Amino acid sequence: MGCWIFNESLSVVLLLVWLGLNLYLFIDTFHWYEKDDAYLYTRIMLGSTLAWARASATCLNFNCMLILLPVSRNLISFIRRTSCCRGSLRRQLDKNLTFHKIVAYGIAVNASKFSIFFWFVFQLLLHNLIVILNTTTQMLTTIAGITGVLITVAFILILTSSTEIIRRSFYEVFWYTHHLFVVFFVGLIIHGMGQLIRGQTPQSLLLHNVTYCKDHYSEWEKSAQCPLPLFSGNEPVAWKWVLGPMVVYICERIVRIWRFQQKVIITKVVTHSSGVLELHMKKRGFKMEPGQYIFLQCPSVSQLEWHPFTLTSAPEEEFFSVHIRVAGDWTGALFKACGAEGSVFQEPWKLPRLAVDGPFGAATTDVFNYRVSVCIAAGIGVTPFASILKSIWFKCCNPNTELMLEKVGALHDDEKMDVITGLRQKTFYGRPNWDTEFRQIAGNHPSSSIGVFFCGPKALSKILQKRCNLYSSADPRGVQFHYNKESF
């Protein structure tokens, strides 16, 4: 339990840091707009809704700053390769998509609070329908109004198309609507240029005594201390929050475009049962590690769509390969383009052009960092371990290779050689009794740090994570199961 407590504690600490920063920014901004004299007359008209809206806007900008970083895969891969990123820190990087979703929820919450501000404004005008209609018309013709509508619509489409059922059943819908993030960020940057929220200018505050004048409207322009107050809008600040992450993400896209131009040669096409396509490819300068994945694009199928696939080849081989299961329109079209449906040999020049982005690091690349590793897969999730098992075999055949890893997949004690992997320990097929297996592994390795790597459905992932937590010793010197889940 000790290892699990530390890993979970680190995740909780990072989450609390994110929540704490949101809370601090909200309170600090709220207090500023509630107390600053420059917004006194605005507060008289709108009450605390001004402070609520601006505080929510600040948190919105903060989360928009973070949202692009977890999907900057080259940046994450670079951090994974650094010497300071080890163990628990690397496992936190594997939760990048989870953090991306959490930040998205943060944006949704703060955008909702910000929108409530306008609802209250309209409530203040309910006594006069004509004023409401005129205000609405004016709002929709201003920079703030137009961009506000665009931002809201774009984000709603992105959020609703990101649900599990849409991503699994209609991936193309998810993919294309997610690119509305360009509209969202451009609208966010322009939105503040409308300078809808206005405060009293510093020069006006020096001449206009708000403490006295706010209670003596009749003396405005008559008394020396109550000249007519002057107001101006705030300078836009959203761009300052998102500029850095946007530059990083643009660099990511530039790298993808550069990789798109690099020639990829398909050397072999193999059709397997159950609609699985195996592609062998070559690309100049391509270097990989076991367990990594790539993004694949086929311009003849779609000019925009890139899909992630785990590499099934070993770094020691002269090619790199992927196994693709037909599970949608894009994979089905690729299946046809490669001539996998027919029994006639496809001429190499007739094969479609492919573009490859990557490779990128994944949780399974840490298999070699443990003395004992347990690899568990379900369905097509077996693909990342094909690369790992092949690489182990190549390393074992090379007497000059130093390998920290001593034992893999010890779920079935059998001295016979496995017919697929060639390893002494036979690959176990089917679902075992997890309590029995984990208890046995813990008993055989009482003082070891054991890496458990899984690729497959969420339901089984939850079961395995619970078993890792249950059978990890509370004593740090005892057996510790480190759970690693593959995710794209």
From TrEMBL:
Reactions listed under catalytic activity: NADPH + 2 O2 = 2 superoxide + NADP(+) + H(+)
Compartment list: Membrane
A GO molecular function held by the record: superoxide-generating NAD(P)H oxidase activity
A Pfam family of this chain: NAD_binding_6
InterPro entries: Cyt_b245_heavy_chain (IPR000778), FAD-bd_8 (IPR013112), FAD-bd_FR_type (IPR017927), Fe3_Rdtase_TM_dom (IPR013130), Fe_red_NAD-bd_6 (IPR013121), FNR_nucleotide-bd (IPR039261), RBOH/FRE (IPR050369), Riboflavin_synthase-like_b-brl (IPR017938)
Topology of the protein relative to the lipid bilayer: Multi-pass membrane protein
Location (main, coarse): membrane
Keyword flag Glycosyltransferase: no
Domain FAD-binding FR-type: from-to ranges: 259-366
Single GO cellular component term: NADPH oxidase complex
Bilayer-crossing regions: 12-32, 52-71, 102-122, 142-161, 173-194
Keywords from the named record: Membrane, Oxidoreductase, Transmembrane, Transmembrane helix
GO BP annotation list: defense response; superoxide anion generation
Full protein name: NADPH oxidase 3
Native source species: Pelusios castaneus (West African mud turtle)
